[in-house]
Amino acid sequence: MSSVITLAVAVGVQDRPAAAPKDGPWESGFRVVASPPFFDGVAALGAAVFSFAGAPNFLNIVAEMRNPRDYPRALVICQIFTLVTYLIIGSVVYHFCEAYVASPALGSAGPLMKKVCYGLALPGLIVSAVLCTHFPGKFLFVRLMRNSKHFARNTIPHRLAWGGCVIGSAVISFIIAEAVPVFSDLLSILGSLISIPLAIGIESWIYIWLCPKQGRRLTPWTYAVYGLNVFIVLVSAMVALSGLVGACISVRNHVKSGQMSVPFSCGDNSI
């Protein structure tokens, strides 16, 4: 929060974005409603949905709560706060930078403020990396060891399995991150291929699967919600596929224009 608020203030008080022309007139290109090409639009949508990609982790949290009935209120409060924050910070930075927004956006206010923003964000980034490594590692560990006597015992096979799952998760993440060196394209690919199905499609599919098993009375409201979830599944599948195509087209364009650094290099991958 301190990092993104600092960024929003910095881009608001500076004369022009760091990536804008240094001399002469310039225009941010801010548009409330724009008309991008279809594949560019869906690729950008995939990157936006990536911000909410933590939704599948809700299942891990509620499954381990002492009183799961307390979870809906916490979820609503958290999501409202998160959504409002994303909208305000994103709108402010987009308004002042638009075409000159860096990717990652923390570099939009110039080299000095980039260091300040990343310094403030570093603890949160470390915690996020630990969580995003822990959750998939736990999924793998539970799947592999659920029927083993070592599942809940402090034994050598338990430690080896757990360490292998965590290290394997980190290695796979590193390979994916380095294989697509342009950060914005990486977000679009992950958002379309993983985030949209996991954060939107699967939740609706769970409702479709559970609804007949709940023995609920079929009221007009039940039919409406059921139909809405079917619609969400279909739309998420369409957006995921088209967004992946759009992200791949963007990667090809960045390669042709020479903006993409070599994979697995130490070059600057921000655009």
UniProtKB/TrEMBL annotation:
User: Where is it mostly found?
Assistant: membrane
This protein's superkingdom?
Eukaryota
Looking at the keywords, is Membrane present?
Answer: yes
Q: Which residues cross the membrane?
A: 42-62, 74-96, 116-140, 160-183, 189-211, 223-247
Keywords for this entry? Membrane, Transmembrane, Transmembrane helix, Transport
Q: Where is the Amino acid transporter transmembrane domain?
A: 40-246
Reply yes or no: does the keyword Flavoprotein apply: no
The cellular component terms of Gene Ontology attached to this UniProt record, alphabetical and capped at eight, are: membrane
Q: Could you tell me which InterPro entries the record lists for this protein?
A: AA_transpt_TM
Subcellular localization is given as:
Membrane
Q: What is this protein called?
A: Amino acid transporter transmembrane domain-containing protein
**Gene source species:** Cutaneotrichosporon spelunceum
